[in-house]
Amino acid sequence: MNFVSNYFLGVDGGQSGTTLLIGDETGRVLGCGKSGPCNHAGTEQGREKFTRAVMESLHQACAQAGLDPSRTHFRAACFGLSGGPRGKRPILEKLLSVGKLILVEDFVTALAGATAGQPGIITIAGTGSVAFGRNCRGTTAHAGGWGYLFGDEGGAFDLVRQALRGALRFEEGWGPPTTLLPRMLEASSAASANELMHRFYTAEFPRHKIAAFAPLVDEEAQQGDIVARVILENAARQLAELTAAVHGQLFQEGEAVCVAYLGGVFRSRLLLEHFRMLIEMHKGCRCGPPTYGPATGALIEAYRAEGLAPEIQGQPQHEK
Predict the structure, then answer these.
(1) DSSP readout, 104-121?
(2) pLDDT in tens, 121-146
(3) Cα–Cα distance between 200 and 56 in angstroms, integer?
(4) How far is CA 125 from the centre of its chain?
(5) Which domains can be identified in the chain, with CATH numbers?
(6) In the list 90, 231, 239, 301, which could disulfide-bond 154, CB 3.0-4.6 Å?
(7) Can you give the pTM of this predicted structure?
């Protein structure tokens, strides 16, 4: 079989979906494919979904690039995977013809995209939260990412947990007044905060569905609710503390550091402005949105594995 050997693959495999990019050795993005989530491969059903997501996105990207997926050899491929790479390498080795196959946590590729492959820190606040950084020596560090039971401070699930606590305290008469109570009851069709709490403990409300209530906290804060505002400010402080923990492990005080943010929680202008203020209080730190998305970051990591650092061409439109 005749293989083409100068193509690179970058994949962001997450809980909400899969984005796959094909690039050539010059950094030009040739094709993009998107499919469903590929975060689990521990069960037979999970492995089937993982395989389907990878192959669907690969075929889409190859079609755009004018390549035959069954005859294309990738010089290097990097997968940034939510939930980590466990159990996924054997599957990918069967699916792909690739020289170097790199599997990493999704926050590694998120950082590479956010800083265009340069040193820095990324703080991610989606359903959960984590901060990850890499310095000019290639040393890495992360803080957070402990999951919803023991961590994920500042993530969407935690925002809703704090909001429900505030609603329960107000309903029981030992907390300050808050409009979060009627808003959450209206959104959930629950009769009381106590009923909503018990429903949150059931299979009716998995973690991502609970986290989807987080925008209500921001909306009420914008309307002047003090409890909601305090929740957002505390979340910003906790996310800044995660960032500071990574900064302290990798960078000198006053050293110029790019700090990027990613995730739905940062759609809250109030939270983002407070987070940015706290970050930029540290001399040398500048805070801003990602340069590229995580799939481009995975492509950058694939180039890095081969000692290449081309300028990415054709982004960030492919990931929008």
Answers:
(1) EEHHHHHHHHHTTTSSEE
(2) 999 998 889 999 999 999 999 999 88
(3) 34
(4) 7
(5) 4-116+292-319 (3.30.420.40), 119-290 (3.30.420.40)
(6) 239
(7) 0.87
